[in-house]
Amino acid sequence: LGKKIMHFDSIGSTNDKAKDLALQGAEEGTVIIAEEQIKGRGRRGSQWVSPKGKGIWMSIILRPDVLPKNAPKFTLLSAVAVAQAIREVTALPVQIKWPNDIIYQNKKVCGILTEMSAEMDFINYIVVGMGININESIKDFPEEIQGKATSLREIKGENISRQRLVRSILENLEKFYLEFVKEQNFQKVLELWKSMSGILGKEVRAMGNNDVIQGIAVDINQEGALIIKEDNGKIHEITFGEVSLRGV
Ligand code: BTN
């Protein structure tokens, strides 16, 4: 991954660019990085503020030869790779909030937006987009998320090299990606995900389509679904949506 890196000063969204290039046949592993995004997108149609030079705004094109039902695994895999890379480069014990937020003391440092194009039985492409807050100060964030977001510099009190972090993310991602698609080994990713989880064993609230489920996050299964146990013992498997830690 990352043999071809395209760097933009300013762009709409690196995910949109990556999807365009993927449609035009860009090869697997192509990486799009921008200094600034004008139309950065978050999950669920939200906006992702991406000020110039302050963070890593990056998308990676993957073309795994696996069935589309495996798609959620790439989201978990990416979260593990980014969390691992942040730990290596900054020594901060960041955690993962299901499915793919990276948090530090319950504040969001990184969000991942995975988008896919697939037919019934094959994946055309997956674009993994990541936004990592590196050098922002709190006032760089929109007011409504100032209490919920933070940056690596705010936490560490020193500048973090974006270049080192990008390199480490690509190395980790490649390692876990090859392990999964070439050796069908997803166990390592699941174990790491669990060991870095900020929610397992905790009381959470999950918002699905219409309903809200409240209980203890007990596990994630082989498919990457979150298992929540309600007080009455009822077990739920959550495959998409958001979770929040109760009382946070
Ligand atoms: C989230 O809502 O948590 C996901 C945020 C993903 C943001 C990244 S920044 C690079 C890539 N391009 C986008 O437009 N979004 C993703």
From TrEMBL:
Keyword Nucleus part of the UniProt annotation: no
Full protein stretch here: 78 to 325 of 329
Organism encoding this protein: Irregularibacter muris
Every BPL/LPL catalytic domain range: 1-181
Entry's Gene Ontology molecular function annotations: ATP binding; biotin--[biotin carboxyl-carrier protein] ligase activity; DNA binding; transferase activity
UniProt keyword NADP present: no
EC main group: ligase
E.C. code: 6.3.4.15
UniProt function note: Acts both as a biotin--[acetyl-CoA-carboxylase] ligase and a repressor.
Binding residue positions for biotin: 13-15, 37, 41-43, 108
Keywords: ATP-binding, Biotin, DNA-binding, Ligase, Nucleotide-binding, Repressor, Transcription, Transcription regulation
Single GO cellular component term: cytoplasm
Family statement: Belongs to the biotin--protein ligase family.
Domain of life, per lineage: Bacteria
Reaction(s) this enzyme catalyzes, per UniProt: biotin + L-lysyl-[protein] + ATP = N(6)-biotinyl-L-lysyl-[protein] + AMP + diphosphate + H(+)
Protein name: Bifunctional ligase/repressor BirA
GO biological process terms on file: protein lipoylation; regulation of DNA-templated transcription
